[in-house]
Amino acid sequence: MRSVLLSLFAILSCGHVLVASERPNIIVILVDDMGFSDIGSYGSEIPTPHLDALANNGLRFSQFYNTGRCCPTRATLLTGLYSHQAGIGWMTADQNVPGYRGHLNKTCVTIAEVLSAAGYFTCMTGKWHVGFNHGVTPANRGFHRSLNLPAGGLHYSDQTGPKGGTQMFLNGEQVARDHAMFNPPWYGSDLWTEQGIKFIDEALAEDKPFFFYLAHVAPHFPCMAPEETIAKYRGKYMAGWDKLREDRYKRQIKSGLIEKGWQLESRPDDVPEWESLSDEEKTRYDDMMAIYAAMMEEVDKNIGKLVTALDDRGVLDNTLILFMSDNGGNAETGVKGKYEGENPGDPHSNVFIGKCWAHLNNTPFRKYKHFNHEGGTATPLIAHWPAAIKPRTGRNGWVTTPTHLIDIMATCVDLGIAEYPNDVDGEAITPMQGQSLTPLLTGEGAFAQRPLYWEHEGNAAIRVGDWKLVRQGLRGKWEYFNLDEDRTEQSNLAEKYPLEVAKLREQWRTWARSANVFPNPQKKSK
Q: What is the Cα–Cα distance from 145 to 138, expressed in whole angstroms?
């Protein structure tokens, strides 16, 4: 009934559905737990030639934001709402208050629902994680085709260990991971891409524009990749996080991604100096990061595979590709990380890169996944659309306008000539919170300045213009930064500007009350 009503709304509002050639195809690629500096064009030593090619022939955004955590980011990306408004202020546990139900609620719509109503063929592969355990699936939230995991963590068809029991679903029905149609044994980054290409072929056969949401599971823990890829990187991280971070920082300054005056966040007190480690410890840490780097290479390789498939089918020119990460680098498991298994990195191991390497992932910023400081919420955004985007390269080629996941829905509605509904099935739909990125993509029109907001696990932030107020933890003190002069959040100006802090704090609280951040749940339990 929901999909029928959405379709009727689109037909009545638009008057007609445009043919495929008049609107762009849209591909949104989301990777999992990748830090701000983990790809070549954002400073990394990891070679990512296919992503770099998209960046060099498209646009690079230097101030695009996610929510700092996997489930809220997916809820925000898919709905164009702040995550609490969509019902996922935390993870997928139902905590019995409106902002924390653990699944997409009935007062939001997904990009797939809106675009399918406007005549798009919609498909997704990879990690879902917006309430599958509550019956909210791609198949009943607008996707015509899907191959998905309920959450994430699965990289191999024959994987064992903590995520070994993960189930897989094809178009809403459980399917064996080793089914012959998937040509097992498979590695996840290959499977999600190759199955997506098959779905694209279905769209082309129906002469429809397509929306493809490619939700990679990599490079999220447990970190694992093909041995031949890992072997390329062993020994390359023996230089250690101290030097590698300085090297990334220098490349970021040289490229114009960051300003020279932004001080590199110093190594946290609990992260040891690399040269203080024993040879055995260095080898262990080197191998952990080699596995992570291999995962990034596999993602990049498959982006090349996807781009080639689009080109071969003659649809690359009119396809908008957007690439981003769901949060900053992941410091979970702390300084030691995890390095378990007979052959770490294989399908039967359990590897987390931990805080030391997450500090490298998020160069030059503070904090990590979970937090609302820049290291938790800043992500690369690469946009590629040959038919409409004129490449901008060099130091001055960065799009520096602050933008956010809430803008993806508005962009899709705009470019898809779709209608965002006021109500569906008797439920009033929460209005979109973002703005279309089209003016920034095409260079035509204006993109209005607006405040941006965050909250997760008591961490909170508001950005207005170049000023950011941020808090670590529910009872933490608010910090105040001028991001134009200090985007790495090194100089707290809260004591210098108490009136401004009070004003922004109240503005944040007003938003939080309206966006279902309050009431807070009494207890968080997975």
A: 8
